[in-house]
Every structure is written in structure tokens, then in C-alpha cells.
Amino acid sequence: MADENDRSANQARTSRDNRLKSALRENLKRRKVQARERAASSDPSQVDDGSLDEGTAGKT
Asked: Distance between CA atoms of 4 and 2, rounded to whole angstroms?
């Protein structure tokens, strides 16, 4: 009887560990994608007005 309880507890722990590993892996992938998107959106080559200094934009 004790062996059955140990096995079921071990299986439950293994199942939980596998779920956590999977969730952490997916979270890491999602965070990497978000970081890449943020880096791409802050790229100065994608600024619409072509000016990096707001104070001189549009003045002649």
C-alpha cells in the first residue's frame, strides 16, 4: 500500500514538473518575441519624419 502511494505521488510530481517545464519554455519564447519586437520598433531607421531631434524638426 505504501508503495502505491509513493508511486502515485512520484507520478504526480513528475507530471507537475513536466507541465511547469513546458509553461516556462513557452513563456521564454513569448518574452523573446516581445523583446525582438520592442527592439525593432525602437530602431531609428523606422522614424517617420527622419529627424531624431524634435527641437529642429520643421524649422528653417
From this structure: 5
